């Protein structure tokens, strides 16, 4: 066990020191080994200390400390006395680097990324020239088996590249000569392939031009369907672990997952579609902390699917790395929740959620949507304590001060999400107005990775600059400071949404030991100009007290 933490980018299973010590004693009676080996075994689990850093705790006082001690997956001390470290403490000198709590996406469709065919390339999200995109594809081709399909389906737009276009078929051929490539803007297209990708899709009945283009709409829908038709359990597990590696490399340590019920890219069958994920949880191999919201997505009034969850699944239950939390992001199907005022089916669904005490996170964009839902919530709040159940209005692109005040009066937190970064045109949400409103909690999210990027630093860039994926200023007047933006992803408030107030988010004694050591000081605009925010990465990521990503920069 003494050398386990020298395995970069990998994770370790925690055991019991007591058990390990007893086992070592038994083994010693049978066969006396080297004293050092016995001492190492006696440690069982290893403690972890990070020293010599600028550790931003993101607590209520925005405290900054220089070191932290982690024991049994929790922060045990801030600025601990080094004299208390023993032979069972691994000490990592972070060499003055900026350390932040692990980033938490308040609303994301993370698990459904595993239903992408091929080998997903999330890194394409933060390329902003065609040359950079081609290099990312070249790197991916070098890392996957020859002949394996490379895809980025969703989370990209042609307008993100300076050239305002996809890489061409010829450029993709040169970047990945031995692999079919398929790229699709926002999942729904249009799409672009190389020659091998074109021929693959044509053979499956998809219309692709000679230059590798696939039209948006039915053609891109078919492209996804035929490519995903043969996905296996093993494929999904591999894909999920690959996405987790990407998330951890940028410091994203917790996701509040809103399922994948909308038909199309990444659709999750709610009967058995989580089996691959459950396998990863049982194996302990998936290292992004996950909070799961089940959808009540019926398009009729009998609410069969919703009631199946409410009556047969267990809210706030599961291991610390993967808990069932509540219902989201709809209580009923889209056609029903779009009624304004809300119709009887939507009102009944939300009453049933409240009656059973479930947490609820609801999709709302326009003032009309938000107003219609708050009408119902205010009525329910007279009978049930919605704040105690952590009901959360989410998205809120166009929320008004009056609507914010209505949520605040009920003691609710707000989930504000940056879809407009990828949507273009009118900006939102009103970040500055929301954070200045005195709400009990505010959390940020991406709504990635179909219609938006998964990378949290793109959202932080958008909050700070008001600029969308193409660099256009769309949310002027609602920009916030860098520290405020990171707090929306990492502060002690984030646990409010999942009833983990004293555990999730921030750095403090007794809280989950999740953190990221950044590659640069994001709070210093001289060190990290605005345009570089999107390129932030972690050099060392810790989840549950274990090093789960290591870029190999720090000595361990």
Descriptive overview:
- The protein is built from 18 helices and 23 strands.
- The N terminus is likely disordered.
- Helix 1 runs antiparallel to helix 2 and helix 7 crosses helix 8.
- The longest helix is centred in the middle third of the chain and has 17 residues.
- The protein folds into three domains: 129 residues, Urease, subunit C, domain 1 (Roll), CATH 2.30.40; 111 residues, Diaminopimelate Epimerase, Chain A, domain 1, CATH 3.10.310.70; 250 residues, TIM Barrel.
- It is globular, with a radius of gyration of 24 Å.
- With 556 residues, it is an alpha/beta fold.
List the helices and strands and how they pair.
Blueprint: H1 17-30, H2 35-43, E1 47-51, E2 54-56, E3 64-65, E4 68-71, E5 74-78, E6 89-93, E7 98-101, E8 103-108, E9 119-120, H3 130-143, E10 150-153, H4 169-175, E11 181-184, E12 191-193, H5 195-203, E13 213-214, H6 218-228, H7 233-249, E14 252-257, H8 275-283, E15 289-294, H9 304-312, E16 322-329, H10 334-337, H11 344-355, E17 359-364, H12 367-381, H13 386-389, E18 392-395, H14 401-409, E19 414-417, H15 420-423, H16 431-435, E20 442-445, H17 456-465, H18 482-490, E21 515-518, E22 538-543, E23 546-550
Parallel strand pairs: 1-6, 2-7, 8-14, 9-10, 10-11, 14-15, 15-16, 16-17, 17-18, 18-19, 19-20
Antiparallel strand pairs: 1-4, 2-3, 4-5, 7-21, 11-12, 12-13, 21-22, 22-23
């Amino acid at each position: 066990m003494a050398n386990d933490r020298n395995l970069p980018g990998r994770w370790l299973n925690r055991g019991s020191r007591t058990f390990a010590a007893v086992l070592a004693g038994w083994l010693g009676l049978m066969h006396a080994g080297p004293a050092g080996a016995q001492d190492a075994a006696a440690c069982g689990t290893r403690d972890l200390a990070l020293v010599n850093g600028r550790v931003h705790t993101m607590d209520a006082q925005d405290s900054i400390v220089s070191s932290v001690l982690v024991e049994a997956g929790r922060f045990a001390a801030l600025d601990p006395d080094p004299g208390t470290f023993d032979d069972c403490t691994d000490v990592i000198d972070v060499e003055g680097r900026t350390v932040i709590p692990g980033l938490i996406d308040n609303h994301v469709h993370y698990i459904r990324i595993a239903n992408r065919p091929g080998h997903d390339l999330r890194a394409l999200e933060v390329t902003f020239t065609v040359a950079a995109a081609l290099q990312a594809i070249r790197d991916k081709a070098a890392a996957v088996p020859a002949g394996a399909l490379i895809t980025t389906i969703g989370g990209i737009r042609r307008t993100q590249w300076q050239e305002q276009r996809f890489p061409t078929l010829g450029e993709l051929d040169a970047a990945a000569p031995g692999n079919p490539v398929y790229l699709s803007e926002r999942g729904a297209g249009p799409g672009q392939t190389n020659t091998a990708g074109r021929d693959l899709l044509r053979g499956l009945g998809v219309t692709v031009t000679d230059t590798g283009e696939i039209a948006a709409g039915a053609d891109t829908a078919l492209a996804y369907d035929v490519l995903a038709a043969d996905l296996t359990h093993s494929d999904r597990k591999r894909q999920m672990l690959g996405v987790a590696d990407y998330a951890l490399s940028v410091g994203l340590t917790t996701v509040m997952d809103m399922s994948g019920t909308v038909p199309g890219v990444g659709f999750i069958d709610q009967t058995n579609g989580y089996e691959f994920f459950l396998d990863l949880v049982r194996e302990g191999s998936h290292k992004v902390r996950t909070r799961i919201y089940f959808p009540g997505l019926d398009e009729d009034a009998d609410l069969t699917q919703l009631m199946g969850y409410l009556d047969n699944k267990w809210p706030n239950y599961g291991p610390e790395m993967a808990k069932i939390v509540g219902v989201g992001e709809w209580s009923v199907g889209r056609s029903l929740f779009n009624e304004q005022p809300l119709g009887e089916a939507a009102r009944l669904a939300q009453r049933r959620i409240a009656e059973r005490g479930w947490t609820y996170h609801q999709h709302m964009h326009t003032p009309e949507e938000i107003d219609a839902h708050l009408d119902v919530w205010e009525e329910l709040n007279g009978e049930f304590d919605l704040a105690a159940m952590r009901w959360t209005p989410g998205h809120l692109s166009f929320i008004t001060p009056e609507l914010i005040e209505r949520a605040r009066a009920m003691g609710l937190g707000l989930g504000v999400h940056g879809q407009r970064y990828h949507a273009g045109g009118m900006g939102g949400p009103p970040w500055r107005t929301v954070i200045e409103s005195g709400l009990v909690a505010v959390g940020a999210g991406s709504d990635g990775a179909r219609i938006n990027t998964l990378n949290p630093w793109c959202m932080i860039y958008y909050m700070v600059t008001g600029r969308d994926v193409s660099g256009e200023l769309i949310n002027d007047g609602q920009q916030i400071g860098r520290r405020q933006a990171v707090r929306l992803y990492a502060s002690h408030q984030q646990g409010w949404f999942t009833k983990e107030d004293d555990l999730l988010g921030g750095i403090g004694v007794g809280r989950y030991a999740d953190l990221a050591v950044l590659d640069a000081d994001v709070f210093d605009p001289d060190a990290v100009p605005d345009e570089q925010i999107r390129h932030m990465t972690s050099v060392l990521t810790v989840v549950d007290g274990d090093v789960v990503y290591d870029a190999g920069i720090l000595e361990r």
